[in-house]
Amino acid sequence: MRTAVLIALVAACSAVTVKVPTQQTGSLRAKLIREGKYSAFLATQHAARIQQLNSGSQPFLDYYDDFYLGNITLGTPGQPATIVLDTGSSNLWVIDAACNSQACNGYPDSGYTKQKFDTTKSSSFVKETRKFSIEYGSGSCSGYLGKDTVSFGGLTIATQEFGVATHLAEVFGYQPVDGILGLGWPALAVDKVVPPMQNLLPQLDAPLFTVWLDRKLSISNGGSGGLITYGAIDTTNCDSAITYVPLTSKTYWQFALDGFSVGTYSESKKDQVISDTGTSWLGAPNSVVSAIVKQTKATFDWSSELYTVDCSTMQTQPDLVFTIGGTKYNVKSVEYILDLQLGGGKCALAVFSMGSGGFGPTWILGDTFIRQYCNIYDIGNAQIGFAQAHHSF
Ligand SMILES: *[C@@H]1O[C@H](CO)[C@@H](O)[C@H](O)[C@H]1NC(C)=O
């Protein structure tokens, strides 16, 4: 009964909307022209159209210059979540309020509590029967899919499909993370879910986003430390000179690396590399990590299982030099040596080994690289741009 009435109403309404506007516009135009107000009217209409397209930005929350997160809200009314804005994956997921494992609640000694998503408290949430499961380098998560409103950076996606995690790997319980928002390409998305960025594109001035990561030097635990800008190039925090390189794959943000050097070591082997905001450090082949260790005179610290150097050398070690598309990009030691409060005057080399080859990219340019160069993720032109980042220290 109600359905029948509804269908009748909808039919009536759509009949009306087809006819009335054209008639009204015609008579309105005639009226405005008669009164000499037509050009002013057109100008407002034009302005309104321009305003429909926009850009947005949100700060990164900086943990030890090592971990950069962003805030989003989901559902109606909006529930907050602090998530990884991750260019190395393409799905959004948050934690189900119904999950009460230690990983979902956050380990008490981690110092971080979780903001979970309560689907029963969102009037716009639509649960699906489909399941999802994602493997990351650090661990896995799984649960079911659903749809709801998602907002971030002052922008709103009315209907976004995402994962509601009912199982999380232990590692997430130790991180200040309530979920992950993937900014990679659709081909990388699990279950063929359309990534948030693709759903945002129609609203944006330009089909791209800019990542700027700040370097604080002083210890930061969740303070503002960078900016992600959707739909525009960040001209405030990034140098105006941008160099672009084409992508070699539209899965990860992947491109070719032509060579690398540090101190007296240099190599010119062509390799595949990805730009990944969700990886804190620089991932490099074994041989390169060994070279960096040797050139910086780092030692392996067995208690922290990290390569460390004396913190006093933070600003005086040789640059890491990457050759990409014929341009040399220098990452200074102040960017790749981090004070993680290890004690004993020791600072960490923000570098890790990717092993000695195999499938896929052999390098990951994580936050270590992105701190030095703003990355412009240009979806429209399938390219990535680099511009020197301005820092607050
Ligand atoms: C991010 O969210 C947390 C928790 O909801 C809040 O305490 C913090 O102020 C937010 N930060 C920003 C920059 O919005």
From TrEMBL:
Keyword match Transmembrane helix: no
An individual GO BP term: proteolysis
Active site: 86, 276
Pfam families xref list: Asp (PF00026)
Protein's cellular compartments: Secreted
Protein family (similarity comment): Belongs to the peptidase A1 family.
Cystine bridges: 311-347
Protein name: Peptidase A1 domain-containing protein
Domain Peptidase A1: 68-387
Keywords (A to Z) from UniProt: Aspartyl protease, Disulfide bond, Glycoprotein, Hydrolase, Protease, Secreted, Signal
Gene Ontology terms, MF aspect: aspartic-type endopeptidase activity
Main location: secreted
Signal peptide location: 1-15
A GO cellular component entry from the record: lysosome
